[in-house]
Amino acid sequence: ARHFAIVPAAGSGSRMGVARPKQYLPLLGRPLIHHALSVLCASPDIDKVFVVLSVDDAEWSRHDWSVLGGKLVPLFCGGATRADSVLGGLRAISKEAAASDWVLVHDAARPCLAAWHIDKLVRELAHDEVGGLLAVPVADTLKRADDHRHVAATVPRDSLWQAQTPQMFRYVMLRRALEAASDVTDEASAIEAAGLRPRLVQGDATNLKVTYPLDLHLAEWILQNREG
Ligand code: C5P
After folding, report:
1. Ligand 1 atom nearest 14 alpha carbon
2. 9 lines ligand 1 (CB under 6 A)
3. Distance from the CA of 208 to the center of ligand 1, in angstroms?
4. What is the dihedral of CA 37, 42, 45, 46, to 10 degrees?
5. Is 87's C-beta closer than 6 angstroms to any atom of ligand 1?
6. What is the pTM of this model?
7. Sign of CA dihedral 77, 11, 69, 47
8. Whose CA is nearest to atom 8 of ligand 1?
9. Is the separation of the CB atoms in 22 and 59 below 8 Å?
10. How many A from CA of 158 to the centre of ligand 1?
C-alpha cells in the first residue's frame, strides 16, 4: 500500500489574534506550514503530499514551494471545518488512492513534525487493522468544571492521552468514517464513532500545535535546537 499525506490548511487561525491565517505566519524565515511540508516531502515513506487550502486562499501562490519537489500537490477545496477540509481532500484524490492505501492527516499548524515521528507511526501501524495516531500521555492533573467554573470532578489522568497528528488510516475507512461523522475535531474520533479502536503511538511534546502566540516562540526554539 502507498502512503499519502493530507495536510488541512484551510483554517483562519482566529485564536492567534492576527489577521493572517496561521499557516503562513513567518517561522524562522519560512511560512509556518513550510516546515511540516518539507519533512513530509522528504520522508521516504510518503509517496505524495496533498495540501488542502481554502478556495479563496490568496497566499499560497505568493510563495515558492518548488524546493519541496514534485511530491507536493495543492488542492483548493477546503471546507467550513477541519473535517470538511480533510474530506474534501480525500474526495479530490479518489482517482489516485486505492481503498487500502494509507492516508496520514497532519495539521498545517504542527510545524515541529520530525522524521522520526513519521517513521515510528508508519512502522508501528504497518500491520494494524485500523490505524492510529501520534499521542502523548497527559502530564497535568485535569479538572472538569461546572457551569460556574467550580471543580465538579478530577479526571484521573493515568489512561489519558493528548491526540496529535499525523493520524494514519486506510483511505476507504477514513473516507467512510468522515462521511458518516459530524462534529469531529480529529480523524480518530470519526473512526471511533464507526466502532473501531485506533492505536495510540507515543510521540513527544515537541510536535506541538501552534494555537496561541506563545506556541510560535516554543516552535521556534524547538526547531532551532533540534539536532541534525
Ligand atoms: O484551528 P485548528 O488549530 O484546530 O486547526 C487545525 C488544522 O485544521 C489547521 O491546519 C487548519 O488550517 C486546518 N483547518 C482546515 N479547514 C478548516 C479549519 C481548520 O483545513 N475549516
Report:
1. 1
2. yes
3. 14
4. 40
5. no
6. 0.95
7. negative
8. 82
9. no
10. 29
Rounded Cα distance, 66 and 64, in Å: 6
How many beta carbons lie within 10 A of that of residue 168, not counting itself?
30
Q: Is the CB of 165 under 6 A from ligand 1?
A: no
Q: Is the ipTM of this complex over 0.85?
A: yes
Question: What residue has cell string 488541512?
Answer: 8
Ligand 1 neighbour 52 (Cβ under 6 A): yes
Domain limits, the chain:
3-128+164-195+208-224
**Measured from the CB, is residue 109 less than 6 Å from ligand 1?**
yes
User: What is the chain's pLDDT, residue by residue, as a tens digit (228 residues)?
Assistant: 999 999 999 987 666 666 678 999 999 999 999 999 999 999 999 999 999 999 999 999 999 999 999 999 999 999 999 999 999 999 999 999 999 999 999 999 999 999 999 999 999 999 999 999 999 999 999 999 999 999 999 999 999 999 999 999 999 999 999 999 988 999 999 999 999 999 999 999 999 999 999 999 999 999 999 975
CATH assignment of 3-128+164-195+208-224, among 3.90.550.10, 3.20.20.300, 3.40.50.360, 3.40.50.170: 3.90.550.10
Q: Which atom of ligand 1 is nearest to the CA of 81?
A: 21
